[in-house]
Amino acid sequence: MHSTQQKILQLLDKGPLNGLTLREIGAKVGEPDSPQKVKHHLDQLVAKGFIRIDKQNNLIEKVQSGAVQGKIISL
Asked: Checking CA distances to 26, which of 12, 13, 41, 69 falls within 20 to 30 Å?
């Protein structure tokens, strides 16, 4: 896992990221001038199932271990 993704997950351990812009998140993880890099890493974390992004409520939160997303269940 990329170090920026690890930093984002560590930041999310403190709580959901409510209302922060990509630049603000970037500043907190050491990428203040790279909002597109932050977006890329957030998208990668979503694809890996580590986080959930709720665009309607402007919320980014960590997915709890063992939580079921969608209708696909791995056996």
From this structure: 69
59 - beta bridge partners?
A: 18, 54
**Verdict on whether the full-model pTM lies above 0.85:** no
Which region holds residue 67: left if phi is over 0, alpha if psi is between -120 and 50, else beta? Answer: beta
Buried (b) or exposed (e) across 53-72, using 16+ Cβ within 10 A? eeeeeeebebbeeeeeeeee
* Run means of pLDDT, 10 residues per run, the chain, 75 residues: 89 84 90 90 91 85 65 54
Listed in order, strand segments (DSSP E) in 1-75 are 17-18, 51-54, 59-62
The greatest distance separating any two alpha carbons of the chain, rounded to the nearest whole angstrom, comes to 42
